[in-house]
């Protein structure tokens, strides 16, 4: 039996989405960061948002062009061991001015800018969710009549937009710094933000680096707290929640062994979803999640990607839900 893997949500600040009601059914031990706007009845307990996440927005005139590269500057300083000046002290003093600088032991940690960037990204994601909802409403209103043949649009492979690599590293390092005390081996990140896939691809060196090998499994989901309660009760009674965790841990362990091992483990997850989850689901779900596993090299960590596919069963997109990416 494979060791139980811990899943850690990425990014650090997660604005609430309706589809997150499904997460506790499959990831009861998920470690989350700042749960922004989550309903109080949600099972997870998020971290409080520190004051430095918003402290400097009112004084943004203090920042100059190139400030986002301070993390790279400190990294270069560590590698080069420069002897002229104290760059770490300069970073900590940034924006405070030369006069009245606090003593060394009173300096704030050099993380306010990273927190503000993370908060800004989370606020932007929350607004984009509203934009997405508006587009869905327009598509429904402007949809062709049933007798007209509807065009089939497929997303292009890859990612259309990628973040700045330095910004991606800064957000990743902040995430590891904050979530580090809550992580235990073996563990894998669970990408939940709308831009998190692009962030991790940028960290891997995309588009120069080849894309990771992937497998996908479609899982039934829920969209309300009442539906989640019914799923948890049915899962605890039937015992499938523990079995799903064991199969997922086996798939994560197989991700670093080879493509055949990963595909075999993902096929077992797919069969479990078709033979056990769907027949025993407590209500007729038309909402599905796609769980994607990024295969890892032996020296790397596997990655989980959680993406919604609303109405997949209604649209007849079932079939084989497990396939190489």
What does this structure look like?
The chain is an alpha/beta fold. It has a domain at 6-49 and 164-324. Helix content is 39%, strand content 13%. The chain has nine helices and eight strands. It has helices at 23-26, 70-80, 87-93, 112-141, 165-179, 196-203, 225-238, 240-254, 259-280; strands at 6-10, 13-15, 34-36, 187-191, 214-220, 287-294, 303-310, 323-324. The strands form two sheets. The protein has a six-stranded mixed β-sheet. A two-stranded parallel sheet has the order 2-3. The radius of gyration is 22 Å and the shape is globular. The chain starts with 5 loop residues before the first strand and ends with a strand.
How many extended strands?
8
**Number of helical segments with 4 or more residues:** 9
Strand order of the largest sheet: 1-4-7-6-5-8
Helix/strand/pairing category: alpha/beta
Mean pLDDT: 75
| Largest sheet, strands/sense/barrel | 6 strands, mixed
User: What is the 3D form?
Assistant: globular
Strand content: 5-15%
Unreliable residue stretches: 98-108, 145-158, 310-325
What's the layout of helices and strands?
Elements: E1 6-10, E2 13-15, H1 23-26, E3 34-36, H2 70-80, H3 87-93, H4 112-141, H5 165-179, E4 187-191, H6 196-203, E5 214-220, H7 225-238, H8 240-254, H9 259-280, E6 287-294, E7 303-310, E8 323-324
Parallel strand pairs: 1-4, 2-3, 4-7
Antiparallel strand pairs: 5-6, 5-8, 6-7
């Amino acid at each position: 039996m494979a060791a139980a893997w811990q899943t850690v949500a990425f990014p650090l600040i997660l604005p609430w989405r309706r589809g997150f009601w499904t997460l506790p059914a499959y990831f009861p031990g998920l470690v989350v960061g700042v749960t922004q706007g989550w309903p109080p009845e949600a099972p997870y307990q998020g971290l409080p948002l520190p004051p430095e996440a918003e402290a400097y927005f009112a004084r943004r005139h203090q920042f100059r062009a190139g400030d986002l590269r301070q993390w790279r500057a400190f990294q270069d300083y560590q590698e080069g061991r420069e002897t002229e000046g104290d760059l770490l002290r300069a970073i900590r003093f940034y924006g405070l001015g030369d006069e009245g600088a606090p003593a060394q032991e009173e300096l704030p940690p050099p993380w306010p800018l990273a927190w503000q960037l993370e908060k800004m990204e989370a606020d932007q994601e929350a607004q984009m969710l509203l934009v997405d909802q508006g587009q869905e409403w327009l598509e429904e209103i402007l949809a062709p009549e049933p007798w007209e043949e509807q065009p089939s649009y497929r997303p292009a492979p890859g990612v259309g937009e990628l973040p700045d690599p330095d910004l991606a590293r800064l957000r990743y390092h902040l995430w590891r710094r904050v979530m580090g005390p809550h992580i235990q081996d073996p563990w894998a990140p669970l990408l939940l933000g709308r831009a998190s896939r692009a962030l991790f691809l940028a960290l891997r060196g995309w588009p120069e680096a080849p894309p990771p090998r992937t497998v996908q499994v479609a899982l039934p989901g829920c969209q309300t707290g009442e539906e989640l309660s019914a799923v948890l009760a049915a899962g605890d009674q039937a015992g499938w929640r523990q079995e799903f965790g064991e199969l997922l841990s086996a798939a994560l362990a197989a991700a670093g062994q080879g493509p055949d091992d990963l595909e075999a483990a993902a096929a077992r997850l797919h069969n479990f979803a078709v033979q056990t989850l769907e027949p025993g689901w407590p209500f007729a779900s038309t909402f599905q999640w796609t769980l994607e596993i990024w295969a890892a090299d032996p020296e790397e960590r596997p990655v989980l990607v959680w993406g919604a596919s609303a109405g997949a069963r209604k649209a007849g997109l079932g079939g084989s839900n497990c396939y190489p990416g």
